[in-house]
Amino acid sequence: MSEPVDVVLVDDHLMFRAGVRASLDDRVRVVGEAASVDEAIRVVRELRPAVVLLDVHLPGGDGGGGAEVIRACTDLLGETRFLALSVSDAADDVVAVIRAGARGYVTKAITGADLAAAVQRVAGGDAVFSPLLAGFVLDAFGAAAGDVATGDDELDRLSAREREVMRLIARGYSYREVASELFISIKTVETHVSAVLRKLQLSSRHELTRWAAARRLI
Q1: Rounded to two decimals, what is the model's pTM?
Q2: What is the pLDDT of residues 24-64, one digit of tens each?
Q3: Which end of the chain is more exposed for a tag (fewer CB within 10 A), N or C?
Q4: DSSP secondary structure string for all residues of 66-93
């Protein structure tokens, strides 16, 4: 069994933090908490967790909320990854934290098990987004990626099924969700994802999201 992922939980509501703690399983270990921008920056820099679960709206600092926390910890982004966890699904909130450096954005409607899985994926280098936020991910990554569409030659490397899997994975669907959506097994999804990454010469789901968004494929 792999070691749990160390997480700092940042939200200004004590009861919500307690609820998240109670709902997470043993794949995640909460090593610290913070309730404001200033406290979050201090705790994250002190503990340097693998993942920070971060609300986008926080008191303190210069009023920049979660995005301000990420910008203040830019030098840690190689070892610490930020996953936004918010009740908000507003485009401005999503775009702000992604541009600041967050590796994902999920809403507070997520289940504890799915949140633990999202933390693991972000810790492993993947990008994770709630499926309904795919359009905002497109705006954030498509504008920032700096990639230029190269025609259909890259897509032609993929089979029809691989294209379907690629789009769903790029939108932030889990392997289980892709399997359910396409009526195939999780193992088959894993096989298709490996083939997609190999054919497109990409190394992670995060790179796949950027690739697909830059080409307006999401």
Answers
A1: 0.66
A2: 999 999 999 999 999 999 999 999 999 999 999 999 998 89
A3: N
A4: HHHHHHHTGGGTTT-EEEEEES---HHH
